[in-house]
Amino acid sequence: MLISGEKMDYVNINNLEIFANHGVFPEENFLGQKFLVSAKMGVDIRKAGLSDDLNNTLNYGEICQYITDFMKNNTFKLIETVVERLAEKMLLNFELLKSIELTIKKPWAPIGLPLETASITIKRSWHRAFIALGSNMGDSKAYLDNGLKSLNCDKIKVLKTSEYMVTKAYGYTDQPDFLNACTMVDTLLTPHELLDRLHEIEKEAHRERIIRWGPRTLDLDIIFYDKLIFEDDELVIPHIDMENRDFVLFPMKEIAPNFRHPILNKTMTQLSEQLSDR
Ligand SMILES: Nc1ncnc2c1ncn2[C@@H]1O[C@H](COP(=O)(O)OP(=O)(O)OP(=O)(O)O)[C@@H](O)[C@H]1O
Ligand SMILES: Nc1nc2c(c(=O)[nH]1)N=C(CO)CN2
């Protein structure tokens, strides 16, 4: 399976003409106008190329019909909204589609000045993320089970989860043992949207932040998000301390032994061996 950032093949559609009613001005909604839609769709077409079987790729006829129906059956003010909603629906609906660069042009934009087109282009894709789970209060197994259930939704697909492991508390050690695991997901959420969702799930588990590194019903941390290296006041990716935590590295080694830390340039197997040798 292709992961975003890796080499990709594309199926392309250029300037599909659709008459629809999007626009900020009431007359645009009432009278309608022409839109031109182009899509560069990331799909692994190797299998189709070798098998000559349409089932192994995206059928561009079906895609054009899907785009046309979406454009005609909805009315939005902004073409920004049209591209955003359409890209998301396509990524959710077509299983082989991993990424999309979508452009919508308005050749008749009613601005009273001569222009060829006004247009919006966005790039959206599925992202591969790894999330660590931990609990050391109440029924920890149930908290982890329910956390994973809540995580799995249309925009977050839980693909593979490690065994649950009992671990000694790290950091603040005067507290009960933890139950820990890691899970691999594909998501359409941005890193901050994913963090917000994790916080909501922690809240559903009545997680309270009292002591730093203290006991908790459920803790959910983003360990990796693609090969992203990112830091702001709310979010550090890769997780800042993961290479020192056996309760993260061991489950990571189980589900993604060859995944390479984008800063340390070591695989999960190498990092967990390095930690065991300390
Ligand atoms: N990769 C990340 N995943 C989750 N939270 C993060 C991440 N990077 C930064 N944070 C921030 O850390 C804050 C504190 O998180 P939390 O209360 O879960 O900390 P902790 O679990 O006690 O400690 P630690 O984050 O070291 O495991 C969160 O509100 C979040 O904004
Ligand atoms: N064993 C273990 N120790 C911890 C854990 C955890 O999940 N497992 N989480 C912490 C803060 O996130 C602090 N210490």
TrEMBL record:
All residue ranges annotated as the 7,8-dihydro-6-hydroxymethylpterin-pyrophosphokinase domain in the record: 212-223
Lineage: superkingdom: Bacteria
GO molecular function term, any single one: dihydroneopterin aldolase activity
CDD domains: DHNA_DHNTPE, HPPK
Protein function: Catalyzes the conversion of 7,8-dihydroneopterin to 6-hydroxymethyl-7,8-dihydropterin.
Family (UniProt): In the N-terminal section; belongs to the DHNA family.
NCBIfam families found in the cross-reference section: folB, folB_dom, folK
UniProt-recorded name of the protein: Bifunctional folate synthesis protein
